[in-house]
Amino acid sequence: MKFKQKRWTKLGLRPLQQLILAFILPLLFGCDQNLLIMASSSEAQPAPTPRQKPNPSPSKTQRRKQFIFKSANDGASGKREGAATRGCSSDNNKPRLTGLIPGKNMGLTMSDRPTFWFYVPYLASSTTPVEFKLTNFDDKEIYKQNLQLKNTPGIISITLPKNAPALELDQNYEWSLGINCDSRIDNVNGRIKRVKASAEVTKQLQENRGRDRLLVYAENSFWYETLTGLIELRRQNPQDEGLKEDWENLLKSNEIGLENLASEPIVPCCKPK
Fold it and tell me: 12, 114, 117, 182 — which has fewest CB within 10 A?
């Protein structure tokens, strides 16, 4: 202490100043040491990372657009369901012979040779006469095909072949399917019209694929493209529950009203005679 006093005296400090420094300097040195310790500890510990928000549920961010068909305003006379009592060999609990077409009995298409769909409740038989026929706006027969049932009961398809006359634009046609059961013909019929898609719809179809493309068809009343496309997509993806739900929603909608066919199988048929 005497040494320090002599040193401070040499510096020209008065006794009061010496006393103040004697108390302050140790405190200052202690603070510096504490600051160094805090700085080193802060450098040693990494800065806390900001808390990440959990990713939102895919069901909330990527909601599946509902499959809704908008029917055309045109309506037509027709009978898309067959008789209540049937011959042939069939299960009475099964739906009737049915043409898959909107409730107004009119369906639009873009194709010149579309695919037609029917539900056939009868068991396959080589002896059961089946006839598909297409007539034009002048009630003139333009195509007829005799068929042999195969793999039924189930939903079957009939596509106009290349040798059949192409459907003309903006013209109404009538199709019919008749099945001769024990000398009594059970038949269904309806109308089809080929129309040209607008430039906007054509652009949307070019920009979309798969299910999104089918939504464009459905929103613009193209029944035959919607139905055929959805069936083909389900065949390619038989385990897809979303497509199964689309199928059910399509058939049970108010525009279609064919919910009784939603669980029926789609079968390969038919063999021309």
Answer: 12
